[in-house]
Amino acid sequence: MIKRVLTILSLLCVLCNYAKAQSSTTETQVVDVNLVNVIVLTFNSTGTSTGSAVSLGFTTINDFTTGKESTVQQLTAASTKPFNITVKTNAANFTYTGSYTPVPVMPVNTKLKLRVTANATGGSIASPFSAYSTLTSNNQNLINAATTGNNKTFSIQYQAIPGLSYPAGTYTTQVVYTATQY
After folding, report:
1. Using one digit for the tens of pLDDT, what is the confidence trace for 137-170?
2. Which of 127, 124, 129 is nearest to 114 (CA)?
3. What would be the CATH architecture of the domain defined by 39-181?
4. Which of 76, 108, 109, 122 could make an SS bond with 147 (beta carbons 3.0 to 4.6 A apart)?
């Protein structure tokens, strides 16, 4: 009888330990958050990387000789690292559309200028773009040392002074802005 009681008690102890062992368990899982550096530059007028066309109409002698200004254009940057912004035109000369032959060649670097009118990037306006300065087909610093973050805005304005040497028609160039993290 004592043997039976001891056997039953031993069995109960084993069952209790088994029950205790099964009442709790721990598992682990690794979660990786993989970040990459990201930078985006958009035109506020379109919300895309391509801005609205800027059209400057010249109708008087004064327009041709003293120039015309565009409306202010605003761009917004967002970046996970500090960044710089450069500007250039896509070609050294304007593309001509019109009926004049031979096709006239108007250089961008003596006829189209740009200035930064507002800067909320946390960086500084590169010299000489706080005033109207000539654009070229080579990268030129526009904003230096802009800070990390979202909604980093800056505004620019164009000025064209074609002079009186070019025939009627449309002269077109693309202005290219590049934001680069460092």
Report:
1. 999 999 999 999 999 999 999 999 999 999 999 9
2. 129
3. Sandwich (2.60)
4. 122
- Separation of CA 141 from chain center: 14
Biggest alpha carbon distance in the chain?
A: 125
Contact 111, 94 (CB under 8 A): yes
144-157 residues labelled b (16+ CB within 10 A) or e (exposed) = bebeeeeebebebb
Q: Is the pLDDT of residue 9 over 90?
A: no
CA distance 89 to 93: 9
Q: Nearest-5° angle of CA 79, CA 85, CA 91?
A: 135
Q: Would you place residue 97 in the very low, low, confident or very high pLDDT band (cuts 50, 70, 90)? A: very high
Residue 29 has pLDDT above 90, yes or no: yes
